[in-house]
């Protein structure tokens, strides 16, 4: 099986099939990362823009770096850019309006909403750390590389984020919704 | 909250399951024991939130949008290959040009050495020395000519990277 570096080299040579393979390999983790980091707003656009950025920068890819780290760094920067664009839309109206009869689907949407609310309550720097560490299962070193900060900072942001999330988890959320 | 409490919370939320270290810490720390239900609640909420699956049409959309960029990369790669072959061809041709003269000079030198050796040594021994020397010359010449395409390719690649980044 071709490595990520082989595929990115093939993309730099203009091979579309290599892009298909690499896209398939990272489709779900990248989509999940973009969703959790930036919310549902313009999700598909951010996904597309991330891949276009990858293709555009493929000839300049440094093979000594891990592709996944590079990819998530691009995605993170795009999420930051997207957040600067008005208007803010913290919760997906599609999810919020879920009133389907299927109890499983409703529960899944509620869970998604709860996690989205919790993550939205964090400052961007802390949210990035939680999403990359918890959902993308990256190590502290990899997260530090993506965020371009020392591993100590990753650790302290993670602790601060969990302290805040724990405080939020203690508050019965349904009460203020009623 | 101490560093150990921070680590216990991290283990509880990230790990999902209670480790012996975590259990030991909870047994000894009242504050963390009081927080443990909130940690569990947090871990459950975060773990249960599956993001929506990417739309099936998204892959095709990305591929279509990337089409012009890929075509541009392919064109550039073709140009780079053509430039490479041209440069290597020129370098080899330039190196081959003086080859007949080199062979002539080497042949003359070998002949002169053989004649000199024959004057003082037996013919077989003189021939042995000259054959050795000829072999050495041939190896050196092969190495030099073999290096030309490699060096030309490297030089072209470096120049291409310098221009296109």
Write the layout of secondary structure elements.
The complex is a heterodimer of chains A (178) and B (165).
Chain A: H1 4-12, H2 16-38, H3 43-57, H4 67-83, H5 93-96, H6 103-120, H7 124-135, H8 140-147, H9 151-170, H10 173-177
Chain B: H1 3-15, H2 20-28, H3 30-48, H4 57-96, H5 99-120, H6 123-164
Describe this entry's structure for a reader.
The complex is a heterodimer of chains A (178) and B (165). Chain A has helices at 4-12, 16-38, 43-57, 67-83, 93-96, 103-120, 124-135, 140-147, 151-170, 173-177. With 178 residues, chain A is mainly alpha-helical. Chain A is 74% helix and 0% strand. Mean pLDDT of chain A is 81; it is low at 96-101 and 174-178. In chain B, 88% of the residues lie in helices and 0% in strands. Chain B starts with a helix and ends with a helix. Chain B has helices at residues 3-15, 20-28, 30-48, 57-96, 99-120, 123-164. In chain B, helix 1 (3-15) runs parallel beside helix 3 (30-48), helix 4 runs antiparallel to helix 6 (123-164) and helix 5 runs antiparallel to helix 6 (123-164). Chain B is an all-alpha fold and 165 residues long. Chain B is elongated and about 105 Å long. Chain B contains six helices and no strands. At the A-B interface, helix 2, helix 3, helix 6 and helix 9 of A face helix 1, helix 3 and helix 4 of B.
């Amino acid at each position: 099986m071709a490595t990520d570096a082989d595929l990115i080299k093939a993309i730099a040579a203009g091979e579309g099939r290599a892009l298909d393979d690499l896209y398939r390999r990272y489709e779900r983790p990248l989509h999940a990362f973009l969703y959790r980091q930036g919310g549902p707003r313009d999700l598909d656009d951010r996904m597309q823009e991330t891949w276009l950025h990858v293709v555009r920068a493929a000839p300049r890819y440094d093979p000594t770096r891990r592709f996944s780290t590079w990819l998530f760094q691009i995605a993170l920067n795009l999420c930051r850019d997207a957040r600067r664009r008005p208007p803010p839309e913290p919760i997906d109206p599609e999810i919020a309006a879920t009133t389907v009869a299927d109890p499983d689907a409703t529960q899944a949407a509620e869970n998604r909403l709860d996690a989205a609310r919790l993550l939205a309550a964090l400052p961007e720097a802390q949210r990035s750390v939680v999403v990359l560490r918890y959902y993308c299962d990256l190590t502290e070193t990899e997260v530090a590389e993506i965020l371009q900060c020392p591993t100590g900072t990753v650790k302290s942001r993670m602790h601060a984020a969990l302290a805040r999330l724990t405080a939020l988890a203690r508050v019965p959320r349904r009460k203020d919704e009623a | 909250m101490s560093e150990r409490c921070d680590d216990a919370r991290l283990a509880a939320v990230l790990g999902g399951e209670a480790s012996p270290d975590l259990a030991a810490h909870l047994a000894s720390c009242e504050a963390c024991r009081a927080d443990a239900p909130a940690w569990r609640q947090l871990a459950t909420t975060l773990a249960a939130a599956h993001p929506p699956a990417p739309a099936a049409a998204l892959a095709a959309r990305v591929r279509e949008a990337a089409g012009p960029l890929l075509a541009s990369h392919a064109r550039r790669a073709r140009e780079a290959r053509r430039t490479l072959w041209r440069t290597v061809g020129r370098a080899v041709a330039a190196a081959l040009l003086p080859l007949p003269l080199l062979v002539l000079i080497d042949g003359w030198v070998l002949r002169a050495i053989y004649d000199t050796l024959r004057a003082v040594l037996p013919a077989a021994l003189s021939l042995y020395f000259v054959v050795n020397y000829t072999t050495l010359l041939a190896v050196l010449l092969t190495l030099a000519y073999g290096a030309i395409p490699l060096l030309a390719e490297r030089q072209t690649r470096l120049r291409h990277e310098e221009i296109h980044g």
